[in-house]
Amino acid sequence: MILALDWVAASSIATALATLVLAVATFAAVRSANRAARVAELSLLASLRPLLLPSRPEDPDVKVGFSDDRWFHLPGNGGIAEAADGAVYLAFAVRNVGSGIAVLHGWALRADTPTGTSDHVPLDSFNRLTRDLYIGAGEVGFWQGTFRDPASDGFAAARRVIEARQRFSIEVLYGDHELGQRSITRFTMMPGDGDGYYVTVSRHWNVDRPDPR
């Protein structure tokens, strides 16, 4: 009887150990699969992610038109800023150095010259583009914006810096072609020869992803 009880106990212990080993193996397999899936997801997102910079001086000119049939030619690494009685026209050439298509959503003008440590303007302060602008990976495109209300603060600020030939900044909100992974890039427009502007970039921010800084 004692031997029978010992055998039953041993069988129970063996079954419990086997179940424990199976559970550990299952947990490890699930954890490994989750890690692999996360790595695959991150790789996919990285392949879709755009990054905007000014175009290069040797890049070809870009022709930009506005809804009132005003047209401008943007040289490589260049932009335009023109103030008329009923509209302020702003545009500059950009290059997408990321690996995914860039979809431009909105923009905000800063008449000041913010330092590199200052934050971007609040998201609800961005002006939405009247149409999405698309720039393919490795391709040159453009950003454009207008102020058409002479009574608005933005119109007055833009006209003031343009007429004074002062440098100013444009913060551009954009994301990937699935409208995710939004980023903000701050471009600075510096008066150049004639009426043109040179364009530089000073800061990038992640909107939908953690920003490590």
Can you give a write-up of this model?
The chain contains 2 helices and 11 strands. It has 213 residues and is an alpha+beta fold. Strand 10 and strand 11 (197-206) form a beta hairpin. The longest helix is centred in the first third of the chain and has 47 residues, at 2-48. The mean pLDDT is 86.
What characteristics describe this protein?
single chain; 213 residues; alpha+beta; 2 helices; 11 strands
User: What profile does the largest beta sheet have?
Assistant: 9 strands, antiparallel
What is the string of helix and strand elements?
HEEEEEEEEHEEE
* First-residue to last-residue Cα separation: 71 Å
Taking all Cα atoms into account, the compactness measure Rg is: 28 Å
Tell me the β content. Answer: 35-45%
Overall geometric form? elongated
**Number of helical segments?**
2
Low-confidence stretches: none
- Bin the helical content: 25-40%
Q: Which secondary-structure class do the elements indicate?
A: alpha+beta
Précis, in short:
By secondary structure, the chain is of the alpha+beta class. Helices cover 27% and strands 37% of the residues. A hairpin with a 4-residue loop joins strand 4 and strand 5.
